[in-house]
Design a protein that fits this description.
The complex is a heterodimer of chains A (about 110) and B (about 110). Chain A is globular, with a radius of gyration of 13 Å. Chain A has about 110 residues and is mostly beta strands. Helix content of chain A is about 0%, strand content about 50%. Helices cover about 0% and strands about 40% of the residues of chain B. Chain B contains no helices and 10 strands. The chains are: A mainly beta (about 110), B mainly beta (about 110).
């Protein structure tokens, strides 16, 4: 069974950092591009970042470029999102996804 | 960025009726490999998104054949034949042609 389990969310003050993790199982992790997609409370889905199979290529939405870093460890079947200089508008549920499969999401709240 | 525009439904929809959800992209999603990079997702209340359709018309594994996707390079339709209670939620289209990946704003389906 395919599983994607996110962790690392929580309440953080503006300007601080947080690192999200996603543990994958049930499929060959290195065969998939991976992505983070977020959803602000009561809002729609918003793509955040993607990473290629071997991590050699990364892509970001403009609003997080220079602040967020997506990475992966294929040996550990894990995906990460390092979030620096967090803003209130980053408050959302963050999903780890292969596009076909989605995690349950992890909440990030940026507030003083 | 490619803009995805979704239409609304005349909610609530009577159970058993067929509905079509529309989505339009600001750029053709037809790639040189002959595939059209348009995905449809359903997000049921309180749940993570679920992939329904990819490449505009290919049903994802385990998805009911009541769901079908069609369209051209820029205009797309998700048809649900005979809506059921379990179909309630928000439907999103997403383009997978370019980065940044972009989603439509969502189409809510309610059933009476």
């Amino acid at each position: 069974e395919v599983q994607l389990v996110e962790s690392g969310g929580g309440l953080v003050q503006p300007g601080r950092s947080l690192k999200l993790s996603c543990a994958a199982s049930g499929f060959t992790f290195s065969d998939y591009y991976m992505a983070w997609v977020r959803q602000a409370p009561t809002k729609g889905l918003e793509w955040v970042a993607s990473i290629s199979y071997d991590g050699g290529s990364t892509y970001y939405r403009d609003s997080v470029k220079g602040r967020f870093t997506i990475s992966r460890d294929n040996a550990k079947s894990s995906l990460y999102l390092q979030m620096d200089s967090l803003r209130s508008e980053d408050t959302a549920t963050y999903y780890c996804t292969t596009q076909t499969h989605w995690g349950q999401g992890v909440m990030v709240t940026v507030s003083s | 960025d490619i803009v995805m525009t979704q239409g609304a439904l005349p909610n609530p929809v009577p159970s058993g009726e067929s509905v079509s959800i529309t989505c339009r992209s600001s750029k053709s999603l037809l790639y040189s490999d002959g595939k059209t990079y348009l995905n449809w997702y359903l997000q049921r209340p309180g749940q993570s998104p679920q992939l329904l359709i990819y490449w505009m018309s290919t049903r994802a594994s385990g998805v009911s054949d009541r769901f079908s996707g069609s369209g051209s390079g820029t205009d797309f339709t998700l048809k649900i034949s005979g809506v059921e209670a379990e179909d309630v939620g928000v439907y999103y289209c997403q383009q997978g042609l370019e980065f940044p990946r972009t989603f439509g704003s969502g189409t809510k389906l309610e059933i009476k």
